[in-house]
Amino acid sequence: MDAFLSKNVLLIGETHKKEQSFVLVKAVLDRALETHRCVAVAVEIPTDQQEVLEAVRAGTAEINQVEIWHALDFPPYHAFLAEMVRQSRNRPCLRIHAVDLPRAVEGDRDAWMAEQIIKIQGKDTLVIALLGTLHVARGIRYASFSDARNVADRLEAAGSSVAILAQDWPSKCTPGLVRPSTEAYAAFINDINRIINGTVSLNERPPVDAVFNWCR
After folding, report:
1. CA 19, 20, 21, 24 torsion: positive or negative?
2. I want to staple 136 with a disulfide (CB 3.0 to 4.6 A). Which of 13, 102, 145, 212 is the partner?
3. CA distance 126 to 124
4. What's residue 36's pLDDT?
């Protein structure tokens, strides 16, 4: 895990509305802060909600005033945001950032999120970004959008040093980290290919650097 923390950006892929994702982020966050790096937690919330997050941090707004995409909106997500804001009050080296495309803005969500992450990364700041898995796996090519690039591809094209940790909830598994060149890893990539009706290649760089299995 420490090798991931030496990068500019750690992308953590999630399946939405799985509260185990927040357990993983908190564990990685605590370890990163132990290494004396500042941490920016980037979340898949429209950037126009940053002011609301800052108001919550200042004590002038409530966490339920933050507008969250319906695909993400469930009580554990609100609890996670509240915990991150609370910790940021007590840890000067921790901040939380909304990085997704605002509803009122037309554009490419992946391009927008990559741009926001580039703005907040730094030599002494690790960005931990919790995003949907299809935003973070390298080399995803949709059948109908062959020229599209997701957040991971855009960040690496811009020169960011990126580590990618995906998550999976297979029905039969061994819990913990799954590395490339294993059957469990290949099964995870095959599941992605079925979802996107496209191709993620295993012949070049690995689409993700590891998968954290949560067994059902």
Report:
1. positive
2. 13
3. 7
4. 79
